[in-house]
Amino acid sequence: MSDTAAVTRHAPASRLLHWLTAVLVLTTIPAGLIMVQEGLPRPVQDSLFLYHKNIGPVIGILVILRLAVRVARRPPPLPISLPRLQALLAETVHWLLYLTLVLMVMSGIVRVQAGGFPMELWDPLMGGMIGKDEALAASAKAFHDLCKTVLIVLMAGHIGAAAMHGLVKRDGIFSRMWPPV
Q: Which segments constitute the Cytochrome b561 bacterial/Ni-hydrogenase domain (predicted)?
C-alpha cells in the first residue's frame, strides 16, 4: 500500500469497531425477527431472546466507542471525484446509522425492563433502572420495531453503496474501511 493509500484509510480502531458492529447487527436482526415467530421450539426461542437482548447493549457500547474514535481521529476525506450529492448522502446515512443504532439499543433496554424481563448479563449494571410498566413497554416495543425498519433500509443503502464502490467502480472508497484491521 502506498503512503497516499494509507492516509485515505480509516484508523484501524474505526475499521475494527465498524466490522464488529456490523457482524453483531447482522446477527442480531435475524435473531430478533426469528425469535418472535409462532411455533418456534421454546429452547430455540429462549436462546434467541437471550442473545438479542444481551448483545444490544454491546452494540451500543461499540457505537459510542466508534463515535469517540471518529472525534479523535477524523475520517479521511472522500475523494474529490465523488459527486457532492453522493458525499452528502454518504455522510447523512452514516450519522443516521449511528443514531438509529443508539435508539434501537435504548428502546430495547426500555422495552425489556419495562416489560419486567431480565437482561441476564446486564442486570448487575443496569437492572431495575425502569420499573415494570406495560404501556411504556408497548411504546418502546413499537418504537424499536420502527427503528428496525429504518435500520434495515439504511443498512441496505450502505451495503449497496459499499458494494458498488468495491465491486463496480473500484474507486478506493470501499478500501477505506477494508480490511477490518
A: 9-179
Alpha carbon distance 93, 100 (integer Å)? 10
User: pTM here?
Assistant: 0.91
Q: What is the domain count for the chain? A: 1
The domain that holds 58 is classified in CATH as 1.20.950
Residue 124 lies in a domain: yes
Burial of 76 (0-12, 13-18, 19+ CB in 10 A): middle
Per the CB < 8 A criterion, the answer to whether 122 and 57 are in contact is yes
Residue at 42 is within a domain? yes
Residues 122-181: pLDDT tens digits?
999 998 899 999 999 999 999 999 999 999 999 999 999 999 999 999 998 999 999 998
The CB density around residue 22, as the number of other CB atoms within 10 Å, is: 16
